From TrEMBL:
CDD domains attached to this UniProt entry: ABC_NikE_OppD_transporters
Domain of life: Bacteria
Biological source species: Streptomyces wedmorensis
Name recorded for this polypeptide: ABC transporter ATP-binding protein
GO molecular function, one term: ATP binding
Length: 351
């Protein structure tokens, strides 16, 4: 992507310098994953599906990390494994330096500190429960001993539903899509977590409401010091909200770094292809060829080589044999910019 086109991405999306100045915290990671693998058995004799196939990832205190990739690349499985909802086949997850334990009691305590916000608020909320009961559910599960009404009101207010008492007795069908998503966010906030994992948090919302929810997440980070992992296929959303971005393809992170470095100077051909389809980029859209990713048939060498536009063009001929045969290492989960690409690292990009 050219420098002019790179600037145009932020400007045309109305972002300006939205990402400028946001850097990862210098403190140790709040949540970290090392060598994470999640494998599911194949059906009817098919090979097992390697949904997450070796991932290192860190999320610092007060940091927002965007996990980006097309459908089926393993984003949601990775997010759920970080929350203890899916037990990894191998590898480890640690929270504040302590390995995650999978006993019932340990997971219950952990889920009070790390909460999930799902994509579809209509599916997340029980249509027979009032807003009050939906938000209070977490408090009741965890045996909250304080003032439940005050806690629910505070969570709704922080989520932007004011005055909160007006919403106590409403049902989900009486709310707009944006209001329902705010109720889901309030249900996560009521337990005062340190980390939120938001899986496509605005995908089901109208464009006019998306900005409000993104602004809310940023405000919660600033006011409460919340960390967040935002799972998305939307690179514009990543630019708007994230400090750091990790691009995932076929079970593994293939490029990572600050949002500015990755989205304005993409090094991996897959990241370049994702960005090229944005009208604001000014680039000719890259149409990926070949079969969609299949986690049960991960190719040798670079897992993207069968669809790589640079390899197909012949430009990467000097390293073509490495692309097809030589396995790339797992990228570091920290804040430094890194790319898993034989061609990019040949050109002197730090990997």
């Amino acid at each position: 992507m050219s420098d002019t086109a790179s600037d145009a991405v932020g400007t045309a999306l109305g972002l300006g310098d939205a990402g400028a100045g946001r850097t990862a915290s210098g403190a140790g990671p709040l949540l970290s994953a090392r060598g994470l693998h999640v494998t599911f058995p194949g059906r009817r004799g098919a090979p097992p599906a390697r949904a997450v196939d070796g991932v290192d990832l860190d999320i610092g205190p007060g940091e927002i990390v965007a996990l980006v990739g097309e459908s089926g690349c393993g984003k949601t499985t990775l997010a759920r494994s970080l929350l203890g909802l899916v037990r990894p086949t191998s590898g480890a997850v640690a929270f504040e330096g302590e390995p995650l334990s999978y006993s019932a009691g340990a997971l219950k305590a952990y889920r009070k500190r790390a909460q999930l916000v799902l994509q579809d608020p209509s599916g997340s909320l029980n249509p027979r429960h009032t807003v009050y009961d939906a938000v209070a559910e977490g408090l009741r599960i965890h045996g909250y001993a304080g003032d439940e009404r005050a806690a629910v009101a505070g969570a709704l207010a922080r989520a932007g539903l004011r005055p909160p008492e007006r919403f106590f007795l409403r049902y989900p069908h009486e709310l707009s899509g944006g209001q329902r998503q705010r109720v889901v966010i309030a249900g996560a906030l009521v337990l005062e977590p340190e980390l939120i994992v938001a899986d496509e948090p605005v995908a089901s919302l109208d464009a006019s409401v998306r900005g409000e929810i993104l602004a809310l997440l940023l405000r919660l980070r600033d006011e409460l010091g919340l960390s967040a992992l935002v799972v998305t296929h939307d690179l514009g959303l990543a630019w708007n909200i994230a400090d750091r971005v990790a691009v995932m393809y076929l079970g593994r992170v293939v490029e990572t770094g600050t949002v500015e470095s990755v989205l304005t100077r993409p090094q991996h051909p897959y990241t370049q292809a994702l960005l090229s389809v944005l009208p604001e980029s000014g680039d000719t859209p890259v149409v990926l060829t070949g079969e969609p990713p299949d986690p049960s048939r991960i190719p040798s060498g670079c897992r993207f080589h069968a669809r790589c536009q640079i390899l197909a063009s012949g430009e990467a001929a000097p390293v073509a044999h490495r692309c097809r045969d030589e396995l790339l290492p797992i990228l570091s989960g920290g804040g430094e910019q890194a790319v898993a690409c034989h061609w990019a690292t040949r050109e002197g990009v730090r990997g």
